[in-house]
Fold this sequence. Notes:
Radius of gyration: 21 Å
Order of helices and strands: HHHHHHHHHH
Strand content: under 5%
Number of helices: 10
Shape: flat
Largest sheet: none
Helix content: over 70%
Amino acid sequence: AxxxxxxxxxxxxxxxLDDIFIxxxxxxxxxxTLILTGYIFFGKQFIRLWVxxxxxxxxxxxxxxxxxxxxxxxxxxxxxxxxxxxMHKARSVVYLLISIVNVIITIPFxxxxxxxxxxxxxxxxxxxxxxxxxxxxxYKRVGIDxxxxxxxxxxxxPGIIIPIIAGIIIMRFIDxxxxxxxxxxxxxxxxxxxxxxWFISMNKYEKGLFTTPIKKIINKLRKKAV
Length: 226
């Protein structure tokens, strides 16, 4: 946020804001995609182990609620840009309208599908408000290069294919019947996910976020050893 305010205060080119939006958004995308896909593959087993099969609807409800905030979670740096430009009023108004419409349509949806209907109503409202509207607003009014952002996100997707295949294989051939097997399955999935995006999706800057601290620790240990 301070960096964004400095860029705007110094009247720097818009491209600097776009670069920050894309750079931070990509990092957030890795994290929330790992969480979301992990929940898709292992959430049902966790709920079954925790509270039993009678709460199976909780998995669908949880998935819908996670999907409703998925895109905003890796675009939230856009809010800081809006604040720095004093253009965040529209977001507040849209969120108010989302809340009102959500309440209105939740009632018939709940009567139709119970808890799943309520979650579905939230997903629909959030999609049109925080994904469709906010992307258009950020692009047309705030000036963020949204097409460039999404092109950068699309370039990450090939690295997600292998983890998805691994998750399907784990769920197909491993019987998750205890917390230990669930933990091992999750750790295996995380390892495959990290390795895949490291070699296929991550750029030099993103790899440096991991390698630079490790190199510093190694150098300190070497100096102490000497």
